[in-house]
Predict the structure.
Amino acid sequence: MRYFLRRTIQAVLLLFGVSVLTFLFSALAPGNYFDEMRLNPQISSETLASLRAQYQLDRPLPIRYAYWVSSVLRGELGFSFAYNTPVGPLLWVRARNTLLLTLTATLLAWALALPVGIWSAASLGRWPDRALSGATATFLIVPELVLALGLLIFAVRTNWFPTGGFVSTGFETLSPANKLRDIVLHMALPVAALALSSLPILLRHVRAAMAEVLGAPFLRAAEGHGIPRQTLLFKYALRAAANPLISLFGFSLGALLSGSLIVEVVMSWPGLGPLLLEAILARDVYVVIGGVLLSTIFLVGGNFVADMLLYRADPRIRTESAAK
Amino acid sequence: MNALLEIQDLEVAYRSTAGRECGALAGVSFEVYPGEILGVLGESGSGKSTLAAALLRLLPPNGKFRKGTVRFEGQDLLRARQRELQKVRGGRIGLIFQEPSMALHPTIRTGEQISSVIAAHQALDRRALREKTLQVLAKVFSADANRIAESYPHQLSGGQRQRVLLAQAIACSPALIIADEPTASLDPSTQQDILELLRTLRDQLHCAMILITHNPAILAGLADRILVLYAGKVAEIGPASEVFGSPQHPYTRALLKCLPPPLTENLRPRKSKLTVIPGESPNLQQLANGCRFEPRCTDRMDVCTTSEPAETSLSRHHAVSCFRYGG
Amino acid sequence: MPVSNKDAQHLLQVQNLEKRYVRASTVSQREEVTALRGVSLSILPQVTLALVGESGSGKSTLARCVACLDKPTSGTIRFGSDELTKLNEKDLRAIRPKIQLVFQDPANSLNPRWTAFDIVSEPFVIQQRFSNQERRERTFALLESVGLSSQKASQRPAEFSGGQRQRLAIARALALEPQLLILDEALSALDCSIQAQIVNLLFELQSSLGLSYLFITHDFAMAAHVSDEIVVMDHGQIVETGPTERIARSPKHPVTQRLMTAATASQVLPRELQAV
């Protein structure tokens, strides 16, 4: 338990550090939100000056940081200039949309990668394994952007799927069942793009981890005891191959908020990605900081979850080894 | 008495990555009788580990059976169907592999690893399974069966792990146990304990045992009969008292002479040179004609270079493959 | 500076060696382990000292300390006229060639990607000695002295048998003309007939090169045959020590007796065959 307490404290300190760094970087980057407005001749410089004072952009950095921290503690995470609302709720809505996509895609990818990877490793070197290796190699080369665009074109040509967005116009008028159907249809292509781009990597890892275990002496020994093949594969082999896969899973969790930017932008999904992109371009500084912080929380959290799972799954980490 | 296990003319080869075949067992024949301990004495390159794996068709992917039969309880294991073979493995023949540190699953509790073996052969409910597991553990551990069942392999000492392997092998009360180097990598006193345990188990379970090792000292006092394996062939087979007491095959004699002198008798001066068998085991990929031991044999004759000797019976139970006795 | 004339004769003198270390047994727990406790022994030139004990007795820790791979917590190790625990890294470098180690499992201590030639000549490269031509000559001479043909020089360890690998490890250990060779269970993984070959090789090398051996093993019968003196260890301490004949004839400490019983229980050879 002390181990986890230590890890939690480390995580909190890390978040702290990340927030300071992000703050520093965005303050050091030239320009601010109101630079755009300066180009507009209709807005006088006094208005600009008063706006800047209102948003405290002329105060020294540490003071701004202090105000921001107190805003975090209130749940607001600062203020967005572009949207004219506190950052917190804004991020929350967008993050929810992103999570809808990425959680589905991640679960789908893992649900496919595990059985297929196991099957591939079990038939190592023979044609099913070779065919799969060829397929994964091909998909690995295809960049996510191309994949997303390709699916978009597919949608346009066949008209089976909507070509972007979260919901259709007139969503509110639909019945609950139809609402669900509408969302699902909109989700289908982005989820496919995300799943297809992460699947090859997962497959390779599952296959590699399983292949290594399948050659191990304890598996042969178990076979010698007459343990049936299914049990050998799923109980013995998979559990021994779990360590690297759990770490990978933690990484998948960590990338839940940050891995979908390209797909969201291409497919006009109103997630965290496009929001952050806009905010960076517009110098909407608190949105950027808030977004980065949220992604970091997920990254750290993902690792943490992986560590906890590893702790449960591998007794060698948590229990004493015998004295020699 | 009818033999429990009958091996006839077993030939096993391995295919190297270059595609060439290398014979590991070249026509091995012997029998195992119920309740006896047969010691298989062989050094590296003799084919002993191949023999252990071959009996249950557990060869690695590049191994193949060229010839021979392995008859056990009325069926030829080499030609049995997968389902029948699975019933025999662990159920009627228990196997103890080398390297206790690697033969157990690292993240499953030992009790569960034993239960799996039982569950693969007997349909028991959870409680009965647990009881049976503890019973089996109690046979190999004098105390603490519960604690051992809850432990993971890395929490156990080498000797304890070896006992767990033994427990797995006896779990379903098999008729035959095959143990491949059961005491390698163990301390001498732990070795003694394990050997003692093997004897006890044989007496209690009335099973036969095949003990495979390169160290004659392990078989002394334990094995009923000894089979000496050299370069994939049987050099000598007979009762332990005869094979150790008056070894006939030149290899057996030379091997026993290599051992350091006994502690209790001053037969040779300390730090004197030990008798050695010159050279090394033959390269099985490049075998010349003639007896496989001939290059290193002190008793060689002309005929030994041109053909391989057949097995000659010296007495009802003692046989040797050497031209000095006919062949 | 030698303390007295008598002490100057000893090649190796270990006094009161202690080694404690903290081990992280799990990710959150640490425990202190005392591997060596008050260990003292000495080896004269051209003498074989057998170190016998079960696993966990501290034999390997002692070997590592003597070979300067580990620093003891307290105590002294005197080699010739040098106090090893007080030397800095630079001076230690000059001493290291004189004390060499041969391990149990050559598969783990020989680089599988190198040829036998590279493995044996590596010490020359590390210590930057001898010209290329001299290195070649010395390497081939070493291979021959351990019974490996020059054909083997271009092969990799994987193409060697277990006994040949140990010969290779010994050849490498001899490259820099050591005075003390520490054999840590060097025979345990070998077949009996090969053990006999290597033991004979070690006898030859001892008389031709004047080597001393620290022979670590748990095989009491072998220890009694190859050594002049025996030291018995248990749980980090020396429990009995003395000339081999005396100990083999009448062991006093229960640990020694237990080790001897285990060894004698498995005596195989009938009388007629033993007299050479």
